[in-house]
Amino acid sequence: MHPASGCSDAFVAHRLDFTTGTRLREISTYISNGAGVAANDLDNDGDLDLVFASVDREAEIFWNDGSLAFTSQTLDDRFGRGVTIVDVDADGWNDIVFTHRGLDGVSFWRNHGGDESIRPSPLAPRPSFTLQPLLGVDSYAYAMAWGDVDGDGDLDLVTGSYGVELLQHGIDSPAADPRAGVVLHLQQEGSWQAHVLDREAETLSIAIADLTGDGQPEIWAANDFALNDKVWQRDGAAWNIVHLFDQTSHSTMTTEWGDLDNSGGLTIFTTDMNPYDISPRTLAAWAPMMNQIEEHRAAGDPQVMANVLQVRDGAGRWQNQATRRGIDASGWSWGARYGDLDQDGLLDLYVVNGMIAADMFGHLPNGELVEENQAYRNRGDGAFDRAPQWQLGATASGRGMVMADLDSDGDLDIVVNNLRGFAQLFENQLCHGASLQVDLAWPGSANRAGVGAQLTLSTDKGVFRRDVRASGGYLSGDAARVHFGLPADATLRTLEIIWPDGAASAIMTPPNNARLIVTRSDE
Amino acid sequence: MTQNTLTHPAHLDVQAALPLLRLLNPKQYTRIVLASLAVGLIASYTAVALGWLPLWGATAMVLLILAPAGALKWRDDYRRYGATIMGLSILLTAQGLHTVEHLVQWAQYNLLYWTMRQSNGLLSPANAEWVHFTWNWLVLITVVLLMLGGMRGGWMWVLLTVAIFHTIEHSYTFIRYQMILRELTAMDVLNVTAQGLPGIVGRDGWLARSEWTRGTWICTIPGLTTAVRLDVHFWWNILEMTPLILAGHFYLRGQAAAGKFE
Question: Which of A217, A313, B170, B227 could form a disulfide with B136 if both were Cys (CB 3.0 to 4.6 A apart)?
Answer without folding.
Answer: B170
